[in-house]
Amino acid sequence: MKLRLTAVLISAIGLQLPLWAAAPQPATEAPAGFATPTLVKAPGSKSVSNGIAEPSGDSFALDQQIYETQHDITTGLGPVFNGRACAECHQNPVTGGSSQFTELRVGHLDANGNFVNPTVPINDGAATITGRSLVNDRAVVPEAQEHIPVTENIRALRAALNTLGDGFVEAIDDSTLQAIAAAQPQASGGRIHGEAIEVPVLEAPGQTRIGRFGWKDQHSSLLSFIGDAYLNEMGVTNRLRPKDETTIGKVTADPEDVPDDIGMADIDHFAQFVRGTQVPPRDATLAATQSAQSGDRLFDRIGCAACHVANITTAQPGTIIDGGTFTVPAALGNKIIHPYSDFLLHDIGTGDGIVQAGPADTANKLRTAPLWGLRMRPRFMHDLRSLSLQNAIERHEGEAEHVVRRFHDLTEAQKKDLLTFLESL
Questions:
Q1: Residue 223 to residue 202: CA distance in whole angstroms
Q2: Contact 365/383 with Cβ under 8 angstroms?
Q3: Can you give the pTM of this predicted structure?
Q4: What is the tens place of the pLDDT at every residue in 118-152?
Q5: DSSP category for residue 257
Q6: Rounded to an integer, what distance in angstroms lies between the CA atom of residue 333 and that of residue 422?
Q7: pLDDT in tens, 145-192
Q8: Please, what are the domains in the chain?
Q9: What angle do CA 371, 134, 91 make, to 5 degrees?
């Protein structure tokens, strides 16, 4: 049975309106479309935003152009990095979309069974990089190149994530995610119990919020997610992450990301771009077929929708989030989205053993993968190791083991319908 968010929230938090309060406006559908084509000439010139208001002097096209800008060592790239631009990893089928890239994370357990980040030697052992599970694939000089120590026997690949529509995800109220988590055990006979974790908001020191970005829900705001990625994926220091992992090969001063002539740093433009993107659209023609509609009902019936939540409504415009640093704008507030995710952490038997922002029990949990835009991915799951949707389904164990059993009990025709539904997303 699909989670009906309105009913769940009223039940979970006892929502009551005073008699004098104006009736809330009905929520409207979030704009959907692959509307940010990646262009070499005039970047962003053919892109269409979700209608978000831009800061003075800014434009959606400018935000996209900066999101697509390639860096080199003179503009802060490295010394260790994975990509030269945001769009290098987020580009399928348009700027901000999903990726074929994976990042590498490693670590080990101590004598008490606790996860420990690696100490990675560089420069022939003369220096090390510590304090993070990420190992970068690339470096600007040979001396800075990271290699996995034999001591790090926990090793995992993680797919670079889609960012289209993430402004709406940021605009989901914490209470909505908490209500979904609270409703899951009863709705699933105690089998499914998503975990919501509080994580720091980097731009609001001392403040926390429910995490929703990254495979471990390690970030709760887009600016935090982006500032962290700018350093860890491109090696560009910024006001939220002001120190490089190593200075070997470094030729620029920190922070490398500084405000431009309108007072916005790159991370501000990145956040504004992502907040302005439309949500991934469905294949309307395929979704209208009898097979896809039958598959939709089966998706609900066998229990997939308990975690892959189809309908979520964002917070009201004017809601203050991100530790007081961001106000939900009209373009993002009170919008219905269809992410097919609860943005919670679950153990479905595919966990990588790595702890990031959450408690120790999150080691083998991962965020429910949003399924919007699924049809644009040739490989699946957090590690991209599943080459078919059926294999991705069959890899679910743990909390989802009963769902996989129900999938196996379907007829071949029913399985085909379910896969057709997924292919329409």
A1: 8
A2: no
A3: 0.94
A4: 999 999 999 999 999 999 999 999 999 999 999 99
A5: -
A6: 27
A7: 999 999 999 999 999 999 999 999 999 999 999 999 999 999 999 999
A8: 5-15+24-31+163-200+282-423 (1.10.760), 60-161+202-276 (no CATH)
A9: 40
